[in-house]
Amino acid sequence: MPDTPELNRILDAILAPEPDARELAALPLPPSYRAVTVHKDETEMFAGLSRREKDPRKSLHVEEVPVPELGPGEALVAVLASSVNYNTVWSSIFEPLATFGFLERYGRLSGLARRHDLPYHVLGSDLAGVVLRTGPGVNRWRPGDEVVAHCLSVELESAEGHGDTMLDPEQRIWGFETNFGGLAEIALVKANQLMPKPAHLTWEEAASLGLVNSTAYRQLVSGNGARMKQGDNVLIWGATGGLGAHATQLALAGGANPVCVVSSPQKAEICRRMGAEAIIDRVAEDYRFWSDEHTQNPREWKRFGRQIRELTGGEDVDIVFEHPGRETFGASVYVTRKGGTVVTCASTSGFEHVYDNRYLWMSLKRIIGTHFANYREAWEANRLVVKGKIHPTLSRCYPMEEVGQAVYDVHHNLHQGKVGVLTLAPRSGLGVRDAELRERHVHAINRFRVPE
Ligand code: NAP
Predict the structure, then answer these.
(1) CB neighbours of 389 closer than 8 A, spacing ≥ 6?
(2) Which of 97, 199, 248, 325 is deepest in the core (most CB within 10 A)?
């Protein structure tokens, strides 16, 4: 239950059987709200420890912080649920660097941006909730609107950002490179981050998709990514993880053939339930792409390629959906078909990739770098959810007080699918507004729900 009477009244209004937008708009805002933060004076707390030893349960705080001033083009949103993304793992272990540098740099941009440069950082890049207030210049959204927010924050004062807003020089990821993120009871977003909440989903289901679904959509489907088409063979690393489970769904929904790589029989079963047939358990097969820290083993790349061909009827993959990085990148470049594409958005296992360039240039392959998604791409990805073509892959849902454990699970790859966090929602299962649509998709929703 929220700590302030104002927020309790707001929550009651949201949870009413028929919420009244005008009543909500008239309710006073609280002076403060509970949020998940890291502290600037603690960024050295893990100095000297290995990455695995850095424990988010020690660095993450749940505390009361003041409600920020609302600026032009912005909205304050009551957050019912959020989710854990890998960027919160990075923020909580202060790797590869502490996020306060991002906030300081942003703070130098303008008077309004200065609000973000604080000794605490409210994290989180997903939310499902209800608009409480909008700033000057916001016409499309109103208090009472039920929304999800994508995490692209842009200024668009420069010409560079007007073709593809991801190219705006002041492009930032909300709740990672900006403050006032979604792991909180209230969030501050730009109005052009808002999108309609899928009416057939619960708050926590709706909050679980935004970042990973939009990223996977740009990476795999968009003209800015790999331009996947019907019939393509798509190798998907971490196919039940946040990104991978959505890439698998996008491949299946788009008529492509996902080749799913996972690390356990349980995860292989999740892929089967999603509808995938070609599945590789990298642990059971004991792939060792590196002989030691400095030397890769091309024989293992070849063995991997042979297994892929066995699963595809002799074909190589048109696209590799890359994000593990250093450990897998050499293999990814090798197994891509002649003229095919490796598309990468991350380097979970290490930023310095090593691959044999002969397999790239002689076989005319391409490597594409990609990052989150622009508003249009995020909107198109959300539209697929609204239409019931892509489903949440939520497994566990934690109360906000246990966010440290939630982030720890993702850090140590103990999770399946997406991990949710209840912020204002008093329990899971709330927020479905279109019961008929839910009924229509309930079979698929249950099939995609990942066992804890
Ligand atoms: P996740 O839920 O933890 O899933 C990642 C999966 O990758 C794991 O479940 C694991 O699956 C697999 N994996 C991890 N290490 C591996 C390795 N060494 N070799 C092979 N597979 C490995 O995380 P996520 O949300 O999908 O994010 C993945 C990465 O993408 C993170 O680094 C994140 O920061 C980044 N990311 C970037 C963007 C962007 O916009 N640039 C957006 C979202 C995420 P198995 O154990 O089953 O194989």
Answers:
(1) 253
(2) 248
Query: For 384-399, what is each residue's pLDDT tens digit?
Result: 999 999 999 998 999 9
Q: How sure is the predictor about 444, in pLDDT bands with cuts at 50, 70 and 90?
A: confident
Domain of residue 312, residue span: 227-369
DSSP 208: T
Q: Which of 152, 145, 235 is nearest to 189 (CA)?
A: 152
- 205 falls within a domain: yes
Assigned domain for 217 exists:
no
Ligand 1: centre distance to CA 242 (Å) = 7
Q: Say whether both 183 and 197 belong to one domain.
A: yes
Minimal-distance CA residue to ligand 1 atom 12: 238
Count of beta carbons in the 10 Å neighbourhood of residue 109: 15
Does residue 161 contact residue 168 with C-beta atoms inside 8 Å?
A: yes
In a shared domain, residues 385 and 360 = no
Q: Whose CA is nearest to atom 16 of ligand 1?
A: 324
**Model pTM score:** 0.96
> What separation in Å is there between the alpha carbon of 181 and the centre of ligand 1?
21
pLDDT at 1 over 90: no
CATH number of the domain encompassing residue 185:
3.90.180.10
**Shared-domain flag, residues 35 and 117:** yes
